[in-house]
Amino acid sequence: MRVDRRVEEDGRNRSVVMFESFTELIDHNREHDHRSAAMNSTFYGAANMKEADAMARRGLPRDGVEAINLAHDHVSHVAGDLIRPVFDEFYDTSGSFVDMGRFVDGTPECMVTYFPTDEPGKSNIVTLIMNISYNCGISADAIKKNGQSMMALVEAIETCGLQAEIWADNHVRGSRGGTKVWARTAVKLKRAGEPFDVGMFMYALTHPSFLRSHIFNAMHNHSSEVRRACGIAHSGSYGMPVHAAQDMDDFPPYSIYIPVISSDSQAGKFVPAVLKQLGLVKADAA
Question: What are phi and psi of 65, to 5 degrees?
Fold first, then answer.
């Protein structure tokens, strides 16, 4: 866990708490329980932190399988518009495959190896930051659809030969006590090149206890001044959500921020826009 407190050039007081993995977050919360006394299953998705811990470790495997199937289906529908990786071929006396034409002709350099073509200024790693600060007016079905759409997006990105890194972000602000502060609590859900734990992924992006139990509990790592300003307390509001991309230097360069949806109708609509932003679909794709 990384905790950082800073004052930006524009005078804003900021506090940042970052977890390098989902496991680091839930292990921390198992050892530091700030929330159980004020929790209930109706709003927080768990009766206490012990129950939230058990759900996090179990994940939602059934929802994960459903999401994988939907992701495969989505990618199959847009496959014709996706831009696939380009490879250069290199001939030598040793390699991965035999070029039968050269072999029959007696050419010594009859073995071929394929290497991905590197594009200057383009990284093979795509970092996606998903804002999970859903308000109480967003339905459970819309949150689930949004999480499934993120999985479909990652499937499409990796089909194109890139690797995806995924973060869940909760960014809030507050001004109680006369001090304006911004507090970010973020968790890396997937490293680039790491296989999907689909049960964990769907739990983190669709179950209310991830935000309202685990993230809220982790927010108690912010300083007392920040907690007071943002209302990070048993009876507090836990801050006013910052919906749009802000202070992106907290994340790797060129990260793509996916703002939280403000209505059910917006669920999953970010996928085509992100693919176009990455240049992974043809210009004339719908």
Answer: -65, -45
What Rg do the C-alpha atoms of the chain give, in angstroms? Answer: 22
Q: Which residues pair with residue 91 across a beta bridge? A: 112
Residues 61-100: b if buried by 16+ CB within 10 A, e if exposed: eebbebbbebbeebbeebeebbeeeeeeeeeeeebeeebe
Q: What is residue 187's DSSP assignment?
A: E
Distance, in Å, from the CA atom of 15 to the CA atom of 143, rounded to the nearest integer, reads 27
150 in helix, strand or coil?
Answer: helix
- Rounded CA separation 232/17 (Å): 14
Helix, strand, or coil here: 254? coil
The torsion angles phi and psi of 131, rounded to 5 degrees, stand at: -75, 125
Segment 267-274 long-range contacts (CB within 8 Å, at least 24 positions apart): 267/142, 267/143, 267/145, 267/146, 267/149, 268/145, 268/146, 268/148, 268/149, 268/152, 270/149, 270/153, 271/74, 271/149, 271/152, 271/153, 271/156, 274/128, 274/153
Closest Cα to residue 168, out of 138, 217, 129? 129
Q: How far apart are the first and last CA of the chain?
A: 41
205 within 8 A of 71, measured Cβ to Cβ: no
pLDDT (tens digit, 9 = 90+) per residue, 44-85? 889 999 999 999 999 987 776 676 676 566 556 555 555 555
> Domain-by-domain residue ranges, the chain?
2-84+120-277, 87-116
The per-residue pLDDT for range 222-273, each reduced to its tens digit, is: 999 999 999 999 888 999 999 899 999 999 999 999 999 999 999 999 998 9
Sign (positive or negative) of CA dihedral 242, 248, 250, 256: positive
